[in-house]
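User: I've been going back and forth on whether these two constructs are worth ordering. Before I decide, could you fold them both?

Assistant: Sure. I'll take them in the order you sent them. The first construct and its structure tokens:
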Amino acid sequence: MRAAADPPDEGGRGGCMEKVKYSYDDFHYVKDTLLAGAINYLLKPVSKIELVHAISRALEIIGQQEADRQQIIKAASLIQDRELSLLVEKQHVPYMPVMMMGDEEGMAGCSVMLVKIHELQSYMEDYHYDMNLLSCHIKCRIKEITGLENLLIFNHIYRSNEFIIVTELDQNQQKKAALRILEHFREEGKSPVTIGVSEHTYTMESIHGAYVQSVSVLMTRPFNRDSMVIFCREEETSIREKVQNRISQETEMQIRALLKSGNSRALKELILEGIGLARCTDQGWGYLEVKQTVKRISNLLLDDILQKGMREQIQEMESLAELADQIVERLDDRLLADILTELIDSAITQLRQEPGGTIRDIVRAAAAYIDENILKN
């Protein structure tokens, strides 16, 4: 007989699920076993059916306990993500996480490592499209990779592909940890990863500034599929100085003129080839340059539809514009060209479907009828 006396773990579960076959006169062995979590008591002689039923029942209970444990872990993880995300967004939180500051030489407090997985959706199928489960596993994996179990790490609830690590590591330790994380994701090959590392800050209250600094550093990366680590102290030049304005006033006027004429072919050629978005990787564009240029083009298309009073069609265009912004995150210029083509086609189609009813529409319709039916004859 093996007694089921292992202590429960942190989740309150018994250390083991026991099935005990008892053959002693002293009942305290049975009592101790039952108190330790045994689920059944079988008297000898035990039939095969009874034994199989009892074992099946034990496996069902173990499975249910594991499912319950997973739900508790996911719920706890989501609560932490929510509260700490509000902290970096500088919103009110009901509690302030406690963080012990080290006294080692060269330590100035805590800093933020922002791990951005640009194609997080490539992992979703492996986790049955359960975002909470995926988030938990990635956070656990990062701890395993770095070998630092005490890392404070959370998944931003508003930007699900961002995993934020608050750490007291010094510069050398940060670099080693970041490179380990980078190498792991690079070997998996599912998604490019960017790790932006802030300078040290003094308190958890000012962690918002460290997060903003990490995001700013990340924006300086080139628009390509390479994974990389960027430290803020390596990026002394301001972001404004690195970003070129890819759409001049003249180009903007050309876009508006082509929208007015409904020439989709020329508009695609101007945006994809003239401005260069179809070849932005080969031309060495920065991530922020692409993001701002796509945003500006989307706004021009949306503004043109609004000016023509087509408010019912604006929702579809806004959805496509939002999708285009998400595609930029994936650092893939081919996908970007595809969504921009769809955005332009949709804008031109909407304009061609402009509802009639005004005097101008009637005049246009009459002129078109004359061209087709009278002048030709």
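The second construct, handled the same way:
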Amino acid sequence: MNDNYYFGRYHTVNECENKIEITSTLSFSTITLLEDDYIQAFQALVRGETCEKADLIQALLDIGALFESKDQEHLSCEVRKKELQALAEQQLLITILPTEKCNFRCWYCYEDFKCGQMTLDVQDKVKSFVAHLMDQSQSQSLQINWFGGEPLLAPSVIRNLSVYFQGFCKEKQVLYSAQMTTNGYLLDLDCAKEMYGLGVNTFQITLDGARHDENRILLNGEGTSEKILKNIQEIANSEMEITVVLRNNISKGQDDREFYRRIARLIKDDPRFVLTPFFVGEWGGQQEAVFECLKTEAEMKEYTKTLNALFSELGLRNFESEKSTNPLQCICPCCYPNAYVVRSDGKLNRCTLALDEDMNHVGDLNNGVNSRDRYWRNSIADHFRQGNKQFFDMRSHDCAYRKYRRALCEQDAGR
């Protein structure tokens, strides 16, 4: 590389057919190279050779992919951390499990489905808890994430709390938004319209591509893909101003090309729909006996490269690529200073994983938060680590949950 420049840690390079995308996760900016001479100049720069394209070098400097010194990169990182910390402090994020029951039995699911629908008493305490947090934190917005279990098994809870949150935020003059993670089975057009009227403007529907009816089954063992795809088509034919994130879980050896072609036919270039391929991990449940995870970075990189080319061919939006330009979408929710998971029985967690682990239990609606909460509150700054391509990456091995767990293990080992 040129003596005066070096590539910083926090950038990603996405090579598709006939183009290269360089994204800085410091500035959340992307440069797309389409012309052969610029592609070759960039590749020469990566190899450490002289680059004659001064405008390319300047563009890489501007977005924070290229630096003149390590001190310059360090300063940029520190400034960005403070900016994102301030941004996160303006948000109040509450994930609510209206029920922890589910109509599916997915092989890889880590939940035990023991807690049922949230009672009216707990719902009243949720309202008081959120109102207290809004007053205490001086947050400028409230975002509710409906989670589960399957949240649509408890629509009455969603109705009751949504009406309150909408009225509360209107009175306080703060922004309100809501999103929902659902298996999509109950999300027919009428249901989607009702949820939209209650303020839910983003839905994440989980699919498993070609293996969906093997992995994501009903309690009686029946497949679920056809009903979900029918619901997706109905929503696509509507005029609701929503975003639908189609998360496709990927395991080793999975060939989803025909699945993506079918999705492309259903949504017909609809900009409201975006796909997010997600590599299945060791989450618990029985997944290891059913399919193998992609574990190496090389495997994931090769699969991602193939997938990007297919998405480009089919005109599908890739959420994983787009979120790198949005700082809020690159920060794990549990790392926000003011973010809690409210379970259907009133317990308070920080993370939606490992719901019953002591380290994740930070209080309850009767007694408020406990001393464990302090370990999570500063985790957004701790999320920064050297060598991670993502400046803030919720899937990095230094996520708050894993870091806290490691600290407890080291503490126990030292006794």
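Notes on the second construct follow. The two ends are 49 Å apart (CA to CA). The chain has 15 helices and 15 strands.
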